[in-house]
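Anyone up for a design puzzle?
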């Protein structure tokens, strides 16, 4: 017998809607060209903290090692029977759909997201994981649905309507749209960051702190120019801390768009006690690199294990990058 009320809520969200075409019917025949804009979601450990990348325990006591190909096979095989998973396992499954890029779950997550945007946020609705995973696996065929979700009215009784953005996690959808080359994603991210900076530095209100963190995971030349221009905004230009904050953000965004050859060079040169900025190439390579790059990350992780390299923070970041790559490339790994 299922013991958690939140489990029934999640079941209702995932399987309570119907009517969308199957994922197979939505497949596009054309091969998508490489996008100019990129999204590096692996660096966001706020929603999924590092414990999620180390191990996840299922209801039967079995332990999943994130990055193991066996987990990818379990998640893929569970698409058709997700409604019969135990409460704990269903929450794990939703997260891993995004980690392992399980496209077959796309229609199910789209239905869930369409239902969530009509509901006031509630504990146990898993909208952070659902929006995250949907954004991870979205392709060109999903642009219209993503835009509808992004533009849907916000539901909630908060006296400050803007505060609802802190809990609906729509920045995931905007980041996915940006990656897919749609202007709506760029506009959302810029507008939210501009509003955040104005409220933060003129009224001392922490409106949408997560938007700055999400921007740290994307690259788009037009968006970079728009953000840089905020330095000269009439209400911000006299504030030195604004210039420093924006310059630091833009610098990290530009790293995400570097050629792979340059990213590899920077990763090799990562200092043992590297700063958050210095570790940025590691996250970018983890999201964009291939099997050879995974070997590079694994070699460096082994050097930390052997004691050849030292540094607790950088060691953890390389381990996170290794897990991300093992998830993303699970079908290609032997």
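Challenge accepted. My sequence:
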């Amino acid at each position: 017998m299922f013991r958690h009320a939140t489990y029934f809520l999640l079941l209702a969200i995932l399987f309570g809607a119907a009517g969308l075409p199957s994922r197979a019917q939505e497949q596009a025949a054309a091969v998508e060209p490489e996008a100019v804009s990129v999204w590096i979601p692996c660096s966001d450990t706020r929603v999924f903290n590092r414990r999620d990348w180390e191990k996840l325990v299922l209801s039967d006591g079995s332990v999943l090692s994130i990055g193991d190909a066996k987990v990818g096979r379990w998640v893929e095989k569970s698409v058709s029977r997700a409604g019969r998973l135990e409460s704990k396992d269903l929450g794990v499954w939703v997260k891993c759909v995004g980690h392992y890029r399980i496209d077959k779950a796309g229609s199910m997550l789209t239905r869930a997201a369409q239902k969530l945007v009509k509901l006031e946020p509630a504990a146990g609705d898993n909208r952070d994981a659902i929006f995250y995973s949907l954004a991870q696996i979205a392709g060109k065929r999903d642009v219209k649905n993503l835009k509808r979700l992004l533009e849907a009215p916000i539901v909630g009784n908060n006296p400050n309507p803007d505060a609802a953005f802190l809990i609906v996690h729509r920045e995931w959808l905007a980041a996915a749209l940006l990656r897919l080359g749609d202007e709506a994603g760029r506009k959302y991210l810029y507008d939210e960051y501009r509003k955040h900076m104005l409220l933060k530095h003129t009224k001392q209100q922490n409106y949408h702190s997560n938007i700055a963190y999400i921007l740290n995971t994307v690259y788009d030349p037009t968006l970079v120019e728009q953000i840089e221009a905020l330095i000269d905004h009439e209400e911000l230009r006299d504030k030195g801390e604004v210039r420093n904050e924006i310059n630091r953000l833009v610098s990290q965004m530009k790293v995400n768009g570097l050629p792979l050859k340059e990213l590899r060079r920077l990763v090799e040169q990562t200092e043992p006690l590297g700063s958050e900025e210095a570790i940025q190439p590691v996250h970018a390579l983890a999201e964009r690199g291939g099997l050879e790059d995974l070997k590079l990350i694994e070699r460096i992780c082994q050097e930390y294990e052997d004691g050849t390299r030292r540094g607790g923070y950088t060691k953890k970041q390389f381990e996170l990058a290794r897990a991300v790559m093992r998830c993303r490339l699970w079908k290609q790994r032997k």
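A detail worth pointing out: The CA atoms of residues 35 and 179 lie 7 Å apart.
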